[in-house]
Amino acid sequence: MTSLAGLVAGPAQVWGGVRLVPLLRPEPIVDLRLHPKLFATAGLSVVSVAPRTAYVAYVPHAFVAAWTGDGSPAAAYGTQLRPADVADPPLSCCPLQFTRRMARREDKQRLRFLPLHLAFEGYLAMQFGGPPTVWAEWNQRAIREGLSPRSEAAYAGTDIPGLDDALRIFEIHPDQCGVAVYLADALAGIFVVPHPDDYRLLHPTLLLDMYGELIHQYALFYDEVPDFRPALDAAAVATVADLRDQVTQAHRDWRSFHSVMAGGLLGVPPGTVETVYRMGRFTLSRFLPTFRVDTDNHVGETITDEDGQVAYLKTFRLSAAQVRRGHLLATLAANDWHLDATATALTTTGDGLIGRLDRAGFGDLLRADIIDAFRNRSRRR
């Protein structure tokens, strides 16, 4: 994801360590609309993604995309109200919700998909099948089952200090169709929707999203960031036209500031892009980063039109450990999971590669005698 053409960054708002940059769309997209679908049981969801393969996570909500075939405007569904005295019966165990596929068509022109989980499942599925060649170094379980099961941890937005207050006091602009969320001035993610009405409806769901370990740590350790305010040159203002020029320059400075701050996402081409579903003139896709260790790495999902304009975007910033795991898996795949070739590509030794595999949680994929001998050598050093 390298461009947000059609969107303009507005002046940022700061609350403690949270910086929120509104993304404005002068011309909203009217023939694609999004609305939330909250699940009745807030607990673990088991999503069938392939035969004999499931994705298990806490999934509190989904998005439903509705589009029209002739480009005519579409309306978003509203909020459903219920009496205050109606309560769900208490559950004696953790509830489970079973869902078919990450993205599933619910009607002729309605698609239900799981925001962020769609992108994160793509990351978890990287080289999920394990070694494609039966090299002697890998154990039989790795050959037979691959990386199953594979897990990653994330934090809910409700666990990010200050985020709930920032979203509550956040001033929503009339043309706002998205937001860039920064914690301690580290880009946590970008959220974009087609229409301002959709954003107002979905703004609270940012608390239900996933955030990485790095973002959670930044929110804990940095309780305040500077509020950069544009400085107007009063000496240069003699007329209303001069004042208008000063304000126009301030807007340009805000857009430039956001481009620099989000350069780790917007300035870097995605590593791989996978088409998930086609919806008339729109396409739902998910992307993985290049896993370069010297830049920010985000996974995400997009809905784009036939011209490539972004109608919907949601991203998740990977932690340094997740980037290292992704880089390691990508290098293994590029070298057909051959240990010596992979060690050469990573400019390390055989023991160095085994150490990386072990620290990344993949050590048990190696034959027991190989990994045990390495661990014994490491303890003696």
Automatic annotation (TrEMBL):
Domain ARG and Rhodanese-Phosphatase-superfamily-associated: start-end pairs: 3-280
UniProt-recorded name of the protein: ARG and Rhodanese-Phosphatase-superfamily-associated domain-containing protein
Matches recorded under InterPro entries: ARPP-2
